[in-house]
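Complex record, two chains
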Amino acid sequence: MEAKHNDSRWPSIVRAVVIGRRPKFTLVRILVLVAAVVGLRQYVLLPIQIIGPSMLPTYQDHGVNLVNRLAYRSHEPQRGDVVAVRTSGESIMYMKRIIGLPGDTVGFHAGHALVNGQLLDEPYVKYPCDWELAPVRIPPDEVFVVGDNRSMPITYHYFGSTQRRRIVGKILLCKNLFASSVPLP
Amino acid sequence: MQKSLRLLGAAALIGLGIWGWFYFFPSPEKVIRSRLTTLARTVSFAPQDGTLARAYSAQKAAGFFTPDAEVVVEARGMEALDFNGRDEIQQRALAGTRVLHGLKVEFLDINVTLGPDQQTATANLTGKWTLGGEREFNVMEFNFLLRKVDGVWLIYRVETVKTLS
C-alpha cells in the first residue's frame, strides 16, 4: 500500500527520465560510461587547466586544453610540438614547446633561439625578447623545452632540457577551450 | 537466502579485517606520505594566526628533521638556500613566519622509494605553495631523504629536483 502511494508521487515520466524504463540496464550503462571516462582520462586524453603566462599568446592563462597521451606511441616528439612535462606526478605539469632534440645544441642570442648554430624560425613568439644563453648540447633521451612568452628576464622563465620519460603527451588543441579574456601584457 | 546472507556477512568480515590490518599496520610508504602531508600542514599558517602559534608551528616543523639535517634549494631566479642542522631550519622557519603574511604548503604526488635496508627512504614530490595575499601559486619538485630513527621517519636531507635543467 505504501509502495503504491509512493508510485503515485513519483510520476512514471520522471522515473523514465531519471532511471529509465529498465533500471538494471541503466545501471549497466552508467557503469560502462564511468569506466569509459576513467579509461579515456587515464590512457588517452588528459584534461588540463593552464595557469600562468609562460605560453602566451598561443595559450591564454586559465584556459582549458587536453593532453594527447598517445601522440608519441608511434613516433618521437618533434621540434615545435607543445607538450606537457610532468613533475613528480601529473597533478602539476609544465606546458612548454620543444625547440631542441637529442644531440642538438641550443642557445639564445639577442632573444632569438639558435639550434645547431642556425636561427630557429619561431612565428609563435610574439613578444620582444633579449635573452642570451651560451649553446648547450642536449643529452641523448632528452629534449629542450621553453615557453612562447619570453618577454620576461631569462632568470624568471623556467625552461631547459628535460628527460623524454617526463613528457606525458602532446597538447591536442591549438587554442584553449573556454579561453579567458585576460588582457595580454 | 540464509546461505547468501552468511556469505555476505563473511565477505564483510573479511573486508573489515583487511581494512583493519592496513589501518593499524600501515606500510612504511603510507607512514612517510602521512608524515610529509602533516609537515606541509604544520608549516602552513593563515594571516590571522598569532605570533605564538606561528612559533609553535616552526618548532614543531623542526621536529620532522634529524639534528644534522640539510636543506638545499637551488632554483633559477632565486638565491640558493642551504640550511644545516635542525636548529637552523627552525630559525629560518621562524624568520619566515615573521616576514610572510601567510603561507599554504601542499605536497603533491608523493612517490616513496624504500632503501634496501628498509631504514632509509626517498620521497620524490611536488611542493606547491601560495603566499598570503597572492593568487598565483609556486611549484618546485623535491627529493626528501628520510631515515628511521627510533621507529620514527625523520628527514635528513631536502634537495630540489631540476625538472627542467
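Note: The mean pLDDT of chain B is 93.
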